[in-house]
Design a protein that fits this description.
Chain lengths: 155, 29, 117
């Protein structure tokens, strides 16, 4: 019930007690619930380096050349959060075709933040997942979420 | 988990990236 | 009159009231003029009125598709001359061109475009 900005300020204190990174069957490592989470609760910020969108191409090529998996999340037309080398545990959230979380961009003190929210009550021990918005491309990436409504491909 | 990637730095909040003068350059003289 | 464009620029750049000066900060971004040229011989000059330490500028020619959230000379649509080391840039490749330039210098830019077709 508190305003978004206030909830966000409390998030930094509470995120680490609520979620943690553990082994996942979906994709090696994933983010898991350490205590029960309520529906609509703010879970964690997808934090990282805030870069201009025009820098993403060069960074993607660099990461690819080094064999580093790229973790980027678009804020808007102008800015992107790059969590590849500097980021919060949210970078480990895996995709699922039946997710229990969703992401939203919120504005706090004039700055935008990507925040993960719970779509429904999530129990302690459950893996947190959300529906990645991959661009539709010809080369298909197989999905390993294992959910009943799996769409088979991430894109 | 950050031990597996020595160059990786865990953050609690966003960090504004400060661009270098040569940020966009492929090669320089 | 050819002026700095208000609608063909990166929004974070600060344009003077007379639209003849522009100031940037942080990373490179671009502003273009109100008018472009298509063929013939054209020339313009720019004066560097201020350049604090560690800052730099890249000026030159750009087509309308040149990315505004990058320096002039970043892609195939623009060509630039950098204050630091006097490097010329196109498609983000820098090549030696001149000595560096800075505050107080007046720079000239000439282009000769063939007739269409």
């Amino acid at each position: 019930d508190l305003p978004m900005a206030m909830r966000f300020r409390k998030l930094q204190e509470h995120a680490k007690e609520a979620v943690g990174v553990y082994r996942s069957h979906i994709h090696g490592r994933g983010l898991f619930c350490k205590r029960n989470i309520d529906s609509g609760e703010m879970v964690i910020e997808y934090a990282g380096e805030v870069i201009r969108s025009s820098l993403t191409d060069k960074r993607e090529k660099y990461y690819e050349s080094k064999g580093i998996g790229c973790y980027m999340f678009r804020i808007d037309d102008f800015e992107v959060v790059d969590a590849t080398m500097h980021g919060s545990a949210a970078r480990f959230i895996n995709h699922s075709c039946e997710p229990n979380c969703y992401s939203r961009v919120i504005n706090v003190d004039g700055k935008k933040h990507i925040v993960i929210f719970a779509m429904r009550p999530i129990s302690k021990g459950e893996e947190l997942t959300y529906d990645y918005k991959f661009p539709i491309e010809e080369v298909k990436i197989p999905c390993s979420c294992g959910s009943k409504k799996c769409r088979k491909y991430l894109n | 988990w950050s031990a597996f990637a020595p160059d990786f730095k865990e953050l609690d909040e966003n960090v504004e990236y400060e661009e270098h003068e040569s940020e966009f350059d492929i090669d320089d003289e | 009159h050819v002026l700095l464009a208000l609608h063909d620029r990166a929004p974070q750049l600060k344009v003077s009231d007379d639209r003849l000066s522009v100031t940037g900060e942080k990373g490179y971004s671009m502003i273009r003029s109100t008018h472009g040229v298509q063929c013939g011989r054209w020339y313009f000059e720019a004066r560097i009125t201020d350049m604090p330490p560690e800052s730099a500028v890249r000026i030159g020619w750009s087509q309308s598709l040149g990315n505004l959230q990058a320096p002039c000379g970043y892609d195939k649509f623009s060509y630039s001359w950098r204050s630091r080391k006097g490097t010329r840039f196109h498609q983000s490749h820098g090549k030696h061109y001149s000595e560096d330039f800075g505050k107080g210098d007046v720079l000239g830019f000439y282009i000769h475009l063939p007739p269409p077709g």
